[in-house]
Amino acid sequence: MPPALMLLTVALFHLPASVPAERSWLLLHIGLAPTGFAVVFFVGMKRAGATVASIPALTEALTATLLAWLVFDERLGALGLIGAALLVGAMVLLTRSTRAPR
Prior knowledge:
Blueprint: H1 3-14, H2 25-47, H3 50-72, H4 78-98
Helix pairs in contact: 1-2, 2-3, 3-4
């Protein structure tokens, strides 16, 4: 059973009274959005080559870190910044290697 359907059944039958009705749609969104993105991601990875498929895989961790900084005001230490710089450098190298030679 897909996670979105599991979450929907739980939300319908066990929705806590503390969650207002106008916010209950968020529970469905939490299940549907990641499932949809995962399907698109893995279908795309099957069709793309290994180098091309690794670029979105690298951006996943970088995007999560950026969103944590923007949304939750998380702080990144020195090692985190070095890791982010390494990921960006790897993505630049990968995009240059996938371009056709001139």
